[in-house]
Amino acid sequence: MTIQFDSINVNSIHAGSGIFVGINAQNYWKTQSKENYALGMVVGHSNIIHYNINVIYDNDLIDTPFENTTVSPASTTHSSSSS
């Protein structure tokens, strides 16, 4: 099967997103993130927000506990060679 694109247009990238082109693999790829939106998202055309004040009260000691874990299944063998 052959799939061919003339172009790839990206309007926005958010947490956990990726663009992968060519021969590649994203084995065991994972992401962790946290976002605080005080105002939220403003959508539409010609929006105007006057005299805006945003306050985020976030009293967590740890917002998102990031873990640095490596997953290596016993059935998978990785090998590399250099030339």
Descriptive key words:
single chain; 83 residues; 0% strand
Task: Please provide a written account of the structure.
It is a single chain. The protein is mostly loops. The chain has no helices and no strands. The chain is flat.
Give a short overview.
By secondary structure, the protein is low in regular secondary structure. It is 0% helix and 0% strand.
List the helices and strands and how they pair.
Layout: no helix or strand
Mean pLDDT: 75
Structural class: little secondary structure
- The separation of the N and C termini measures 31 Å
Q: Approximately how much helix is present in the residues?
A: under 10%
Number of strands: 0
Radius of gyration: 21 Å
Low-confidence region ranges? 79-83
Number of helices: 0
Q: What's the main sheet like?
A: none
Q: What percent strand?
A: under 5%
Morphology: flat
